Amino acid sequence: MKVTCLTFNPFQENTYILHDDKNECVVIDPGCYEKQEREQLKNYIEENGLKVVRLLNTHCHIDHVLGNKFVADTYKVGLEIHPDDEQTLRAIPAYAPSYGFQMYEEVLPTAFLQEGDVVTFGETELQVLFTPGHAPGHVVFYNGPEKICIGGDVLFQNSIGRTDLPGGNHETLINSIKSKLFALPDEVTVYPGHGPETTIGHERNNNPFLR
User: Fold this and answer.
1) By the 8 A CB rule, do 62 and 96 touch?
2) What is the pLDDT of residue 1?
3) Exposed, middle or buried: residue 182 (CB in 10 Å: 0-12, 13-18, 19+)?
4) How many helices (H) and strands (E) does the chain have?
5) For 153-191, how does the pLDDT look when each residue is reduced to its tens digit (9 = 90+)?
6) pLDDT at position 18, please?
7) Matching Pfam families, A to Z (predicted)?
8) How far, in Å, CA of 120 to CA of 139, rounded?
9) 133: left (phi over 0), alpha (psi -120 to 50) or beta
10) For residues 42 and 22, what is the distance between their CA atoms, to the nearest angstrom?
11) Average pLDDT in the 83-103 region?
12) Does domain 2-210 have CATH number 3.60.15.10?
């Protein structure tokens, strides 16, 4: 499986495209808002001969969903989120203009993800882990054979997700990290929603928020 990161919007949000040798791909947390950002995403998909088969959100804060409608409309795929984050998604149109996103277009989920679900594309499987705390319906996507985790805004390099937004809870987030992510092997690479990738082992041993 190949993991490609494209960083978009003023929040410097990491959008991920995952694909394998079968050239089916999933798009996770498309943050592309400006026309040139959407063209960058589209060009990457076209240049690599990929077929988009799934549109996934780790969670539904505005910086992670700005390109949802573009991806859904362009590639005729439905949005998949955890049901506990639908309220987070539905709240965005009311506040998007105050963040400068006057052209935000809403798309609602067509399917819901639950703990233990398996997302498939090509010959690849991603396990869904429920990791609330940063957002009520936050999930991460884990591939065991290749030791890869698409982690959204739960765990960062030497940091953790913020919990001061609606639906956030610090104790819940810490529990999610310790019970779900720290149950994974040290060698697992975590690709976060912002900033550089890290590993479970590095964060277990060095993250100042988790000692």
Assistant:
1) yes
2) 95
3) middle
4) 6, 14
5) 999 999 999 999 999 999 999 999 999 999 999 999 999
6) 98
7) Lactamase_B
8) 16
9) left
10) 18
11) 98
12) yes
CA 195 to chain centre: 13
Calculate the average pLDDT of the chain.
Answer: 98
Sheet holding 109-112, edge to edge: 2-8, 13-19, 24-28, 51-56, 79-81, 109-112
R_g (Cα) of the chain, nearest Å: 16
Over residues 86-114, mean pLDDT: 98
Burial 127-165 (b: 16+ CB within 10 A, else e): bbbbbbbbbbbbbbbbbeeebbbbbbbbbbbebbbebee
Residues 136 and 5: their CA atoms lie apart, in Å, by 25
Is the pLDDT score of 129 beyond 90? yes
Closest CA to 191 of 143, 156, 139, 162: 156
Tell me the average pLDDT across 100-126: 98
Q: Residue 28 CB: number of other CB atoms within 10 A?
A: 26
Domain spans, the chain: 2-210
32 CA to centre of own chain: 13
Tokens of 68: 């949802």
8 has a pLDDT exceeding 90:
yes
Q: How far, in Å, CA of 164 to CA of 138, rounded?
A: 15
Q: How confident is the model at residue 211, as a pLDDT?
A: 86
Q: Which residue has the tokens 């943050």?
A: 31
